[in-house]
Amino acid sequence: MPCFFPHLRFIIVTLSVLLLLGGCVRSAGPDLRGLELRDEIEKLSLQQAQRAFFRADYSTAVQLLNRFLRTHPQSSRSLEVRWWLARVYQKTGRLSSALEHLRFLANTPTWNVYQTDARYRAAQLEERLGKSMAGRAGKGVLLSLGSVQTPGYVDLALSASREIAGDTILLDVPCRVDGVPPDSQESFLIHAMRSAVEHMHSRKKAVYLGVTLRCLGQFARESESDRWKDWAYDPSSGTLRRSSYYALHSEGYRAFLVDWLARLHDLPLTGLVIRNAEPLGLYEGFNLLAVQLFAREFGVDFDPVLMFADDRTMVQANSESGVRLPSVFWKWAGWKARERLRIIRSLVQTLRVRLPHLEFGMTLQPQSVTDPMRGLIHFAEDWIDVAREPFDMFLVRVEGSDRKVVHSISQGSSPESSENNDGVTAVAEMAEYLGKPDKIWTIMAFRSGSAYRPLSMLPKGVGRIYERSAVP
Questions:
Q1: What does the pLDDT look like over 48-57, one tens digit per residue?
Q2: Which of 331, 338, 416, 415 is nearest to 383 (CA)?
């Protein structure tokens, strides 16, 4: 009996140890399988992003890679993911984003396989971006391609640029939709553009090309361009008619835009600016596809003629936001603004792949900023949505009373005390919202001498582009 208890004690201890070990083994099993499963998920996620990259579907690749970093922040593959993100951003021209990931790889505390190459690529991008920002000076000149017919006028524009100590030229392609130019005229304009850009570049100027997308169909063959014309409501007749401008909803027209703009790849341009010289106004944009898409999305039987025939629709070209409009109009106005931005975003994403060396800018109507409702009605613009897009700069015209308000803000007076109380001016509000005044370029009329110098009127860092009047 005395010997029994030691044996019993030994048996109990042994069983306890076995049970403990058994529990550890059983609990470790699922953990090990969980790790294997997680590793397999991570591997498949990265492979999916890589396949998108190799088929040049860069928007999907960016989405998948960024999702990987959010979902698996502690993954051993996170450095590899950052490497692929840097490659995607370089391919699409988003060099600042690429540089951010390359710097991360280059500066990790412990060595990684991407570190040496990341340091080399980061140095290259820093030099390239440094030159770009140096060329993108705070002052420049805007002139129309229609005026650039002789090298002499180009020299006049360069002289104006020297007068304001500016290093930037914005060359704007005019909108000539009333009559499609013959082939000889098109060739002349293209030749003039190329000559002007090369001449200005040789004078060490950063050259940007401004284009109004709704007008570029003027450079297409007439047999093609007629199919791409938009539809507009004519208040005098109460009917729809073919517009002078081109519909961005037309798939054929969008393909033409990409092809035409991609041909600029061999020009020494610094960037491309999407102008809005001919806004998509109140009565424009009623092409059949757009109307059908809107009606399908909102489940309505949408007829623009009936909408404008409604006696509640009291809209004048200069009306403010307090007009009476049927509810379907507001749905249409918001949808039209979103669709316009979606199409432009898609176009720019495609062009960034085809023209990765270019910066991209976008113009905004100042009224869209100071009165968003009016912006929707008359310009199909929601400037907050536009400002969220990754454009390199935003352009807005400043003239007349706007300068007075900007001046009052720069002097520290309350905007409420201004005669032109909009709460805040377009420039000041944009600068506050973006937090980056250097991304804003103002367009002003050019006047020789001291009259063109509203330097104290603008928030610090805002660029100034002076419009040179066309020669007669």
A1: 999 998 888 8
A2: 338
Q: How far apart are CA 308 and CA 472, in angstroms?
A: 40
Question: What gap in Å lies between CA 101 and CA 112, rounded to an integer?
Answer: 14
Q: How far apart are CA 295 and CA 344, in angstroms?
A: 21
Neighbours of 230 (CB within 10 A): 22
Mean pLDDT of the chain: 78
**Percentage of residues in the chain with pLDDT exceeding 90?**
27
> pLDDT tier at 130 (50, 70, 90 boundaries)?
low
CA 156 – CA 467 distance, rounded (Å): 13
Whether residue 247 contacts residue 287, with contact meaning beta carbons closer than 8 Å, is answered with yes
Please report, for residues 8, 15, 23, the alpha-carbon distance to residue 12 in angstroms, rounded to integers and kept in the order given.
Answer: 6, 5, 16
> For position 455, what pLDDT does the model report?
47
**Any idea what the Cα angle at residue 119 is, between residues 114 and 120, rounded to 5°?**
105
Question: Which two tokens mark 60?
Answer: 């999907």
CA-to-CA distance for 428 and 402, rounded, in angstroms? 10
For residues 105 and 112, what is the distance between their CA atoms, to the nearest angstrom? 8
**Which residues 6+ apart lie within 8 Å of 319 measured at CB?**
374, 377
What 3-state class would DSSP assign to 364? strand
Contact assessment for residue 369 and residue 387, using Cβ atoms and an 8 Å cutoff: no
The Cα–Cα gap between 189 and 152 comes to: 16
Interval 199-214: pLDDT, tens: 888 888 888 999 999 9
- Residues β-bridged to residue 206: 168
Element (H, E) at 97: helix 95-106
The model carries a pTM of 0.69
Count other Cβ atoms within 10 Å, centred on residue 269: 20
Q: Amino acid identity of 286?
A: F
CA distance 233 to 215: 18
Please give the pLDDT value at position 105: 92
